[in-house]
Amino acid sequence: MPFSQTRLLVVDLRRACTCLLLLPSLAWAQDATLATPPGPPDALTAQLVEIRTLATGGQRAAALERYDQLLLAHPDNGDVLLARGRTHAWEGNHAQAEADLLAVLQRSPRYADAWSALGDLYWWSDRPQQAAQAYGHWIELQPEQPTAWIARG
What we know:
With 153 residues, this protein is mostly helical. It has 8 helices and no strands.
C-alpha cells in the first residue's frame, strides 16, 4: 500500500478510535488530572451529547448554532469551546477552529484532548510541523494513549 494511503488509513483509524473513546465521557475534564464524576450526566453534558450527535450526523451548521448558544450561557466552559472548535475544524473553518482551540489551551494547557484537536486541525489544514508539535504535547500529557503516538506518526 502506498505511503499516502497508509497515512490516510492511520488517520481514519485514529479518528474512529478517538470518537469511540470520547463519546462515553463528554463531560471532559478541564485538566488531565480531573476525572468525570460517576452518575447520570448533568444538563450541560446531555446537551453536549445531543449537539455532538448533530455535528457527527452531518448537521454541523445546526450544531455550531447550538454551541454558540451554550457559550452565551457558559462563556468560560472549555468543553463547549473545544466541541465548537472541533466542529469548525470538521467544516474547514480553520481560523475559527484554531481560535477556539487556542483559547481552551490558554486557560487549560494540560487539557490533552484540546492538544489532540489542535493537532488534527493542523494536520487537516496542511500544517504537519505544527500538527506534530501539538501531538507531542498530547503525548507528554498522556504517554500511555496509543492514539496520541499513532497521530504523531
